[in-house]
Specification:
Elements (H helix, E strand, L loop, with lengths): L2 H4 L6 E6 L5 H6 L1 H9 L4 E4 L11 H12 L3 E7 L5 H13 L4 E5 L16 H8 L6 E6 L10 H14 L1 E8 L3 H13 L6 E5 L5 H11 L5 H10 L3 H21 L4 E5 L4 H11 L4
Parallel strand pairs: 1-2, 1-8, 2-3, 3-4, 4-5, 5-6, 6-7, 7-8
C-alpha cells in the first residue's frame, strides 16, 4: 500500500519511527519491540537509513521486510542521497522493488566531514526527481517547522519544501518540535504557498535530558519555558522525567489532534513503552 492512499479518506493516522540495529544479533532481538509496536496497529512504520548504506548489506531493508511480511504493517524506508551517486541509488531502488517495498522517505542526509559528498544529489528533491520517472514509489519528504538549520529564512525554507512537493513528495513528515504554535504557523505558511499535501507532525517524548538537548541543538527546535522547567527540575530523576515528559508529549499530541492535524508520527527511539503509553493516552481520540 502506498502511504499517500491512507490519507485520501481523511483518516487520522498514527505512525512510528524506529532505527535499525547495528548487529545481526540485535536484529533478532528487535522482534520484541516490533511485536509491541505492531500490536498498537500503526498505519505505517518508518525505518531510518542504516549506517553503512550498502544496498546488499543494510539492516534498514531487513527491518522493513520484517515489518511488512511478518507483522503486516506498511514500512517507509528512509533513503539519504548526499553520499551516493546514481548507480548506488539505482542499486538501492532495485532492492526495494524486488522486496515489494513501495514507500520512501527521501532525504538529503546529514553532511559528514569523514565522508565526501557526491555530486549527483544535493537535495532530497533531486533524489525524487531522479527516481520518480523510473519507479512507482510513493515519496514522503521531511520538513522542519522551525526551518532547517541551514536555511536562510522561512521564505527560502517554504520555497524548498514546495520544490520537494512539486518533484513528487506526497506526504511531509516533520522534524521534532516542542512548541505546537510553531507547527501551526508552519502549516499555515505552507498552505499559503499552495503546499497542500498532508503535513504530519513528528513528536518525541522527553525521557532522557542529555539526549533531547543534543536533538534540540541538532535540529534547532525551540526550547519552550514550560518544557525547560521539566528538564531542569527532573533531569536527575529518571522516573519523574519519564512521567513528566510523557505528559508533555501527550498534551502536544491531543492539542494537535483536536486542531484537525492529519495524524501523528512518533519518534519511538525503539522504546515500545513510549509508544504504548502514548497510544493509551489517545485511544479514544485518534
Amino acid at each position: 500500500m502506498k502511504i499517500s492512499d491512507i490519507y485520501k479518506d481523511n483518516k487520522k493516522t498514527l505512525s512510528f519511527e524506529i532505527f535499525p540495529p547495528k548487529k545481526d544479533s540485535e536484529l533478532k532481538n528487535i522482534d520484541e519491540t516490533l511485536a509491541i509496536l505492531c500490536e498498537l496497529n500503526p498505519d505505517y512504520i518508518s525505518v531510518t537509513f542504516g549506517a553503512d548504506g550498502s544496498s546488499n548489506n543494510n539492516y534498514t531493508i531487513e527491518l522493513a521486510k520484517k515489518i511488512k511480511y511478518e507483522y503486516h504493517i506498511e514500512p517507509v524506508v528512509h533513503l539519504t542521497c548526499i553520499q551516493y551517486n546514481k548507480t548506488e541509488i539505482d542499486a538501492f531502488a532495485n532492492v526495494l522493488i524486488n522486496e515489494g517495498i513501495q514507500n520512501i522517505l527521501a532525504l538529503r542526509g546529514d553532511k559528514n566531514e569523514d565522508i565526501s559528498a557526491k555530486e549527483d544529489f544535493k537535495h532530497a528533491s533531486d533524489l525524487i526527481t531522479y527516481l520518480k520517472p523510473q519507479h512507482k514509489f510513493c515519496f514522503l519528504g521531511a520538513c522542519y517547522p522551525e526551518c532547517h538549520p541551514e536555511s536562510e529564512n522561512r521564505v527560502s525554507e517554504i520555497k524548498y519544501i514546495k520544490e520537494k512537493v512539486n518533484a513528487g513528495a506526497q506526504v511531509l513528515l516533520s522534524q521534532l518540535f516542542f512548541d505546537n504554535e510553531q507547527f501551526f504557523r508552519f502549516v499555515e505558511d505552507c498552505r499559503i504557498a499552495e503546499i497542500n499535501v498532508p503535513i504530519i507532525p513528528g513528536i518525541m517524548p522527553v525521557i532522557n535530558a542529555a539526549q533531547i538537548k543534543r536533538m534540540i541543538t541538532t535540529c534547532g527546535a525551540t526550547f519552550p519555558t514550560r518544557f525547560q522547567k521539566i528538564i531542569n527540575k527532573y533531569e536527575n530523576n529518571k522516573e519523574a522525567l519519564f512521567d513528566a515528559g510523557m505528559s508533555y508529549a501527550l498534551s502536544q499530541i491531543i492539542d494537535l489532534l483536536v486542531s484537525d492535524i492529519a495524524g501523528i508520527h512518533l519518534y519511538t527511539m525503539n522504546n515500545p513503552i513510549i509508544a504504548r503509553k502514548i497510544c493509551e493516552g489517545i485511544k479514544n481520540i485518534i
